[in-house]
């Protein structure tokens, strides 16, 4: 299996736009059917051996515990209950409106009374159009989606290795349906007062100092796949500090800055995995040093026991 296969945004833009809305529909079901956790950790998807999952949720209104799985090998959506019942349908050949209808029908057939509270796209150009009326987005290239899932799976493991180097509070590695990225976030535990006027979602997500690392597949702002990192609140002079490798750079992002390493630059390196990991660690170190984070929370190789760490050094 090729490490970090090529996946330029233009090669699957139409499919990505459709799939993004599919994920938002199921993500909003997850939001409605799961107990809230700090920083919204209950909401994103997690990876499986064949795609992504909501994880078990419910029961809702007397129904069963259930989960919703995207299978990106067989290209099907499956709703499964704890008792073993299942309703599924193909992902191909469906508009967003079709997918929305068929997903709700699958839930109803299993006696699950949950649906999105706000059945509209989030932070997308057609945010005022209900999913049920979107017949425009219907492209679905199975080969491109399988490649997206393979890239997602490889980056997931890279972020797990990166996450192992920090023993403080850290999020799971999870795939966000609203922004279509995969990320892991480290926390300093120092409380932060979000900017005046911040919405409730933002206030909860950034109630502590964070350094987040992740990957996205390209969007209107950065039209190509890229690894990224940001520190929030952003320390003074952050963008004056160098990043590794030399191809990495600081980029403006809605009034703050992202550390960016373009996916193709990582792919072109002699050691793509090591290059991407080094980038994430360098961006973290810059942010942590300027924000005054405690270095004792770092645990190379995932080892926190000092005796084992010293033995490993020899």
Automatic annotation (TrEMBL):
InterPro entries: DUF5996. Pfam families: DUF5996. This is DUF5996 family protein. It comes from Streptomyces polygonati.
């Amino acid at each position: 299996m090729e490490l970090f296969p090529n996946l330029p945004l233009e090669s699957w833009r139409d499919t990505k736009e459709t799939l993004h809305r599919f994920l938002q529909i199921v993500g909003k079901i997850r939001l409605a059917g799961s107990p809230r956790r700090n920083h919204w950790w209950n909401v994103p998807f997690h990876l499986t051996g064949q795609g992504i999952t909501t994880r078990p949720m419910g029961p809702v209104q007397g129904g069963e515990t259930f989960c919703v799985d995207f299978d990106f090998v067989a290209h099907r959506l499956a709703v499964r209950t704890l008792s073993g019942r299942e309703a599924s349908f193909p992902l191909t050949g469906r508009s967003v409106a079709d997918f929305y209808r068929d997903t709700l029908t699958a839930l109803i057939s299993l006696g699950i009374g949950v649906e999105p509270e706000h059945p509209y796209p989030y932070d997308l150009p057609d945010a005022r159009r209900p999913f049920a009326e979107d017949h425009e987005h219907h492209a679905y290239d199975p080969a491109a989606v399988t490649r997206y899932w393979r890239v997602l799976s490889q980056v997931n493991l890279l972020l797990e290795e990166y996450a192992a180097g920090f023993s403080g509070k850290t999020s799971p590695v999870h795939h966000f349906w609203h922004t279509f990225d995969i990320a892991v976030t480290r926390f300093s535990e120092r409380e932060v007062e979000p900017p005046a006027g911040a919405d409730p979602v933002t206030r909860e997500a950034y109630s502590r100092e964070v350094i987040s690392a992740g990957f996205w597949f390209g969007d209107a702002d950065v039209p190509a796949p890229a690894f990224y990192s940001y520190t929030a609140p952003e320390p003074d002079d952050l963008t004056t500090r160098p990043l590794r490798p030399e191809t990495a750079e600081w980029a403006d992002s809605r009034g703050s800055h992202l550390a960016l390493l373009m996916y193709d630059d990582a792919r072109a390196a002699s050691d793509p995995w090591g290059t991407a990991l080094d980038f994430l660690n360098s961006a973290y170190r810059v942010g942590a040093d300027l924000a005054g984070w405690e270095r004792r929370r770092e645990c190379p190789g995932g080892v926190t026991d000092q005796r084992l760490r010293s033995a490993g050094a020899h």
